[in-house]
Inverse folding.
């Protein structure tokens, strides 16, 4: 019943839908098939939808996003969107075992498991990141406090001029989180606000080498 009541969600070129709505998706849209599960992320929460809208804007601006990471991937919806947007390699992780299992199933069901690596990790604390980075784009749809603690790691694994999408934030937490990322070397590109929730797109600055 929960699955049947989840209606398709559209954002730019993407349509998030359940398996019961698969036949209704137009051929000129990018379908992301996600069924309700124990893991977070069906595209109906404002923080997840904000990330999808942010990705739509990034693609519209012409940024090249070939190597992408989804930290705290939940059901894997953002990893799926990245893979279907032309990314050559996608790395996804979550601290929760059920989320990792769910993401792997969803990636396989959407036919994109071959270019996506999914594993359990608390943030970037996994050896896989040592050879999967540096990333053109990093999604972090988690919570405000963990985002602030991960700022230095995000900077380390993001390439110069690379982008990071920060979500899971209330509008009242925007300034606090931005300050941490400003301090390590990011600048704001734009934000996506949906209700009380906000998603921030930031870019890693080019380091200035001394002559």
């Amino acid at each position: 019943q929960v699955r049947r009541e989840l209606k398709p969600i559209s954002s730019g070129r993407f349509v998030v839908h359940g398996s019961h709505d698969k036949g209704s998706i137009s051929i000129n849209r990018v379908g992301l098939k996600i069924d309700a599960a124990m893991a977070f992320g069906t595209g109906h929460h404002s923080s997840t939808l904000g990330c999808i809208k942010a990705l739509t804007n990034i693609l519209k601006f012409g940024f090249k996003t070939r190597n992408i990471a989804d930290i705290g991937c939940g059901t894997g919806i953002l990893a799926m969107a990245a893979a279907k947007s032309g990314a050559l390699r996608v790395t996804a992780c979550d601290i929760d075992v059920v989320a990792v299992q769910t993401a792997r199933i969803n990636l396989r069901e959407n036919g994109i498991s071959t270019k996506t690596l999914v594993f359990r990790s608390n943030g970037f604390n996994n050896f896989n990141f040592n050879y999967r980075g540096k990333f053109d784009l990093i999604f972090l749809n988690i919570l405000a406090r963990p985002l602030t603690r991960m700022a230095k790691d995000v900077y380390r694994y993001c390439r110069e001029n690379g982008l990071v999408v920060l979500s899971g934030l209330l509008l009242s937490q925007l300034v606090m989180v931005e300050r941490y990322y400003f301090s390590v070397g990011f600048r704001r590109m734009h934000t996506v606000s949906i209700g009380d929730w906000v998603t921030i797109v930031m870019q890693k600055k080019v380091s200035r080498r001394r002559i």
Observations:
- The mean pLDDT is 84.
- Strands lie at 9-11, 14-17, 30-33, 67-71, 89-94, 116-120, 135-141, 158-170, 186-194, 197-204.
- The two ends are 65 Å apart (CA to CA).
